[in-house]
Amino acid sequence: MGVIKVMDEVLANKIAAGEVVEKVSSVIKELVENSIDAGSSNIKIELINAGIKEMRVTDDGKGMDSIDAVLAFTPHATSKIKNENDLYFINTLGFRGEALPSIASVSEVELNTYCNGEATKVLIKGGHVEDTGNSNITRGTSVTVRNLFFNTPARLKFLKSFYTELNGVVSLIERMALSHPSISFTLKSENKEILRTSGSGDLLKIIHEIYGYNVSKNMVHIKGENLDYEIEGYVSNININKSTKTNMTVLVNGRIVTNSYIMKIIKDAYHTFLADNRYPVVVINIEVDPTLIDVNIHPTKQDIKISKIESLEELLFSLIRDKLNAVDNTFKAYEEKPKVNIEEEIKKEELIVDYSQDNGVLKKEPLKFVEEQALNFYVSEETLEYDTSIEKEELREETLIHPVGLALGTYLFANDENNVYMIDIHAANERINYEKYLKELKEQKTNKTSLLFPINIELSKNEYMTVLENRRFIEELGIDFEEFGGQTIRIIAHPTWLREGCEIESINKIFDLLVSKGNKFDRVKFNEQLAINLSCKMSVKANTNIGPLEQDILIKRLMKCEFPYTCPHGRPTIIKYTKYELEKLFKRVN
Questions:
Q1: What is the spatial order of strands in the sheet that 480-483 belongs to?
Q2: Biggest alpha carbon distance in the chain?
Q3: pLDDT per residue over 508-534, tens digit each?
Q4: Residue 515: is it exposed, middle or buried by C-beta count within 10 angstroms (0-12/13-18/19+)?
Q5: In 3D, which of 290, 41, 29 has the Cα closest to residue 175?
Q6: Strands 293-294 and 282-288
Q7: 17 to 124, 257, 356: CA distances (angstroms)
Q8: What is the pTM of this model?
Q9: What is the per-residue pLDDT across 466-494, written as a single tens digit (0 to 9) for each?
């Protein structure tokens, strides 16, 4: 007699639930996605004991008739796809027909739904239909899930604490609201409202409702397209950054995804702008032909496969990088939340796109200095540009700015008519040197200086072999050398951009970096990392007293940088205190 048997339906659903239903937020995700697919405008989520005891999702969508209400809990029953070809043109969040039967198999479910004058109620416990009948609901659908994992105690004990489960739901609904700004979401726990969004359709307003004033006013609008992709959304300037990736919301055709490659592209766009362990706040939607993606690689549908990823990388990276370079990223000393109208205040900040106009692009350019006299430099404070079919108009206002003095041997103070600036001299010098070295490394032709007295450098065997293997590249950098016996090489020429007096240390850094890259050598990444390494060690140290002329030169060179706001490690170079902020500290204003 054979030993292979077909599992009964309830057991199969319990196993499937292990992939779809991991925690409370997993259940809420599936139920809310069904509500969105039903065309809802208002979705309410209610939790008792963080959803472990009871969770309810109510919507005003199109609902189901009595037949579909029962059929919805049958495995692989779905209204989203009809045949195999539909898998290549998926435009809904759900389509597999696994979620509802999986949830019902490990909980007690009550469904109430209304469609075409017919109100239906379905009760299911542990995957078995207990009762069906009439309901008193008058619109949409309400799904109540009670006693999650009551019949699978091993799974129940792996649920986290009350606050962990609740936090998971809050995070999910925040991202759902950001992904569908035209839908109003309400989240309640123990009958207390935790989150409510307006459903206004204005993404920036939803960002404000979720993250608050300080985040929303520092968000920068991005929009662009190429032959394969259309991208639009908001990314934070460097004033707003977080310790985790959880605030990076990426949507593909309106679906929330956690694709690691897309996350890497975004993080790379902030390289040298933010520290490696800091992450931006991001809400972007990527529109693409459904045939170029595969959302059917995991039951939760949170990860996807993407075709033509190089085309996406080029567009997304350039959109973020170019926009960050175009706005004022100066760190603010204080970020208080005033009781004001968010739309009006954000427009005043001049850091983001004017979302009330489809074609208007409002931006604030980085500070740029023009030398007038030996010690006086002028800054172009504001530049407003509207990209329309009309000829571009530029408004410029020049304001005097100059150094005031050095504090603690590290922080340089400067001011203009309305602001005081505090500059970290080491971080500023790092940014200046970084951009200088990076520019030199990108040059096709390198100027060299021949050495009257050659430099002998002794290497380890591994280092020696690596240097010989990369001889052509090293010579392209402007370093000419010859073998000098044993494991020693003789440097006979080096590029003119090496800092005088630090030639040996700089060349050793180049060799060390070559060895560390091994077989994973990439010229672009090598240049960038070398520029970072050299800029750090070759910059003026903290607690170094520099005179007035050096202070002037430092400010002038910093403001000529493409991105003067951070050092290449992502630390601030300059922090701004407005006149109002200072007067408030001294109680001169309220």
A1: 448-458, 488-495, 480-483
A2: 99
A3: 888 888 888 766 667 788 888 888 888
A4: middle
A5: 29
A6: unpaired
A7: 15, 20, 45
A8: 0.72
A9: 888 888 888 888 888 888 877 888 888 88
